Amino acid sequence: MAYKPPYVWKQLPLLRVLLPLTLGIILQFYYPLQIYFLYVAAGVLFAANILFYLLPAYLRFSFRWLQGLFLQLVFLVAGGILVHHQDVRNHPMWVGNHYEQGNALLVRLNEPLVSKPRTYKANCSIIAVRHKTHWKAVKGNLLVYLRKEHSIPGLGYGSNLVLTKQPGPVANSGNPGAFDYQQYCAFQGIFHQVFLNSGEYSITSIVSPHPFRQWLFHMRDAVIAVIRKYVPGEREQGVAEALLIGYRDDLDKGLLQVYSNTGVVHIIAISGLHLGLIYAIMVWLFRPFNRLKGVKWIKPAVIIAVLWTFSLLAGASPSILRAAIMFTGIVIGNVINRRSSTYNALIVSAVLMLCYNPYVLWDVGFQLSYAAVLSILVFNQSIYNWLYFPNKLLDTVWKLNAVTISAQVLTFPVVLFYFQQFPVYCLITNFVAVPLSGWILFGELALLISTKLLPAVAPCLGDTCGGMLTFLNGFVERMDALPFAVWAPLKLNVAQCMLMMLCFATAAYAIMRKNRSSIVVSLVAALLCIALRSKDIVLHQNQQKLIVYNIPHHTGVDFIMGRSYWSFVDSTMAADPFLWRFHLKPSRVLHRVFPKTELQGLSTLYPFFMFGSKRILVVDQSFHFTFPSKLDVDLIILAKNPRVQIPELLEHFNCRQFVSDGSNSLWKINRWKRDCDRLHLRHHSTPEKGAFVWML
C-alpha cells in the first residue's frame, strides 16, 4: 500500500519544519554538542539527500519517506547550529576570551539610563578592551549600575564610557524557587555586571548612537511627555504609558499586581490585541482612498511600516513580534490576492522568530502568545456555537466571552506553571477591561494626533482618557477585592503542566467532535497529573528545614515543618508586600507551605529559637551577653550589621555554624568570614552563596 501522509501534514506543511527545528533547539540547549559535529552531521545529511536523487525512480518512490526523514534531521541539526551561534560565548571576539584583570573596558549605552532606588541602570555593549597600550575590539554585553551620588549630565543612549573596575558575573539570589535571573540575562547575551562609584568610570566625548534606535527613543520620550502633560493622575499615567507603548517604569507595583491577580495584565503588556487595533485603524483610515490609483501599493507599505515601527517602539516583545509577522503576511496576501491559512501564518511567524533568536522559545510571553492564539483558532468557533442569542448585543457579549474561554484551554496550564495562581473572575474582568482598554488606546492615539493638529482639543481628550483609566483601575481593584479572587498557590512541574494541557485539549476536542477515544486520553492524562501532584504533596508532608534568605538590606528567615511555616522578618520586610512576594513567596510555593501563627516543634524566646532539637540565635543588634557559662548553640545568624566580633561571640557560645544575611555590609561579612576561616568555623554568606537551607 502506498504511503499516505497524515492530513495535518498536507494542510500545514511547515509543521515539518517547526517541530524538528524546535526539538533541535531544545536538545542543543540541554545536551550541547560541539559545533564541528553539527556541521559534519549537516554535511552528511545534505550528501544523503543528493544521493537519494541519484537512485532509480522506482526506489525513490518506494522509499520517499526516507527523504522526508533526511529533511527532518536537517532541520533538527539546524536548530542545534542556531543555538550554538546565538550564544555569544562561542564567538571568537567575545570579551570573556580577551579580558584580563586590570584591563579597562570601552562600553556604549544601548538605552537611556533607567532610574532605580539607589542606582541608574543601563544595558551596554562592550566595544573594546584595553591591553597595555592598545585597544582590542571585542563583542559582549554588560549591565552597568551607576551609584546615585550625583547627577550625571549628558549621559544617555549612545554615550561611551571607559570602565576601570573589573566586572563580576551576573548572579541569582540563590533563594529556593526564585526567578532565574542569570539565565534570563544569558538569553540576552549578558553574562557580566558592574556597580560603579564616581572615579571608577569616565565619560568620553564620543557619542555613537544608531540613528533609527535614537529616533525610537526620542519618539518614546515624546509620547511619554504628552501623556504626562495631558492625562491626570500618576497611576493613570503609568497605565496609559504601559497600554500605549509598553513603558512600565512608571507603573505602580501594587496596581500591576492587581492587574495580574485579575487576569487582565495582558492589556498593559503590549501584545497582538494592541497591534490588531492599530491594524484596524490603519485599514479604516485608508478606506476612503481605496479607489485612487497607486493606493494599492502605498497602503500596504504604510501599514507595514506603521505596524513594525509601533512594534519596535513598544519593545519588540515576542507576542507583538508574532502579531507583526502575522499581520504583515495578511497585508502581503491581500496585495497579491492570496489568502493563506491562519495556522500556516502562525507557524511561519514561529519559525522566523526561532531562526532569528532560538532562545525566544523559553520566553513566557512567546509561549503564552502562541498558546492563546492556537487555542482561540482551534476552540473558539465550537465554544461560540454552544449558545445562540438572536439579540445582537447579547450575541456580541457571548462572542467576547467565547474568545476568552477558548484562550484559557491551552494557556491555563502555562499560567499555573509560571505564576502559580489563577484569576477566578478573569471572564468577568476581561469582559469589561478588554473593550475599555481598546477605547482608551483609541483615545490615546487621538490625543497624540490632536497635540499636533488640534492642540485645543488635547486637554479634553487627556481628561477623557484619564477618566476611563480611573474607572478601569477602580474596577480591576474592586474585582481583586472580591472573595476568592485568586486561586493560589498552585505549583506545577513540567510534566504536570504538559499532562494538564493534554487533558484540557483532548477534553475540548471530545466535546467538539463527540470523540470517545479523546475522552479516554483526557481522563488518563488527568489521573497521571493528579498522581504526580499527590506524590509531590506527600513528599512535602515530612519536610523540616530552616531557610535564611538572601534579601538585599533585609532579613528573612522561614521555619518549615511539613506543610506549614513560621517566619521571622524585619519590620520593613513585613510591611512591604512587594518585597515578601518577590523574595519569599516563590520558596513557599516551591515547598507547598502555608503560614501558621504557632508551629509545632518551634519555641521562641527572642533572640533564641528552639526548632526541633536545634538552638538558633539571631544577633541583629549590638548587645552584651551576661550568661554565667557558655551556651551551646547550633546556629548563629548575623543580621542588621551588629557591632560584634566572632571571637567575642565564642566567649559566650559554643557554635560552629555562622550565617551572615543580606542585611549586613559586605565589608563586615568579609571580616566575619576571615575570622571564621582562621578559627576553623563554618560560615555562610547569603550575598555570596545564596540562601542558607538547613535540613533538620
Describe this structure in a few short sentences:
With 696 residues, the chain is an alpha+beta fold.
Could you characterize the architecture of this molecule?
The chain is α+β, with helices and mostly antiparallel strands and about 700 residues long. Among the domains are: about 5-85; about 95-210, OB fold (Dihydrolipoamide Acetyltransferase, E2P), CATH 2.40.50; about 365-420 and about 490-540, no CATH class; about 545-695, no CATH class. Helix content is about 55%, strand content about 15%. The protein contains 25 helices and 24 strands. The strands form five sheets. Strands 1, 2, 3, 4, 5, 6, 7, 8 and 9 form a nine-stranded mixed β-sheet that branches. Strands 16-17-18-20-22-23 form a six-stranded mixed β-sheet. Strands 15-14-13-12-24 form a five-stranded mixed β-sheet. Helix 15 (about 390-420) crosses helix 16 (about 425-455). The longest helix has 28 residues, at about 390-420. It is globular, with a radius of gyration of 29 Å. The N and C termini lie far apart (about 65 Å). Mean pLDDT is about 85; it is low at about 1-5.
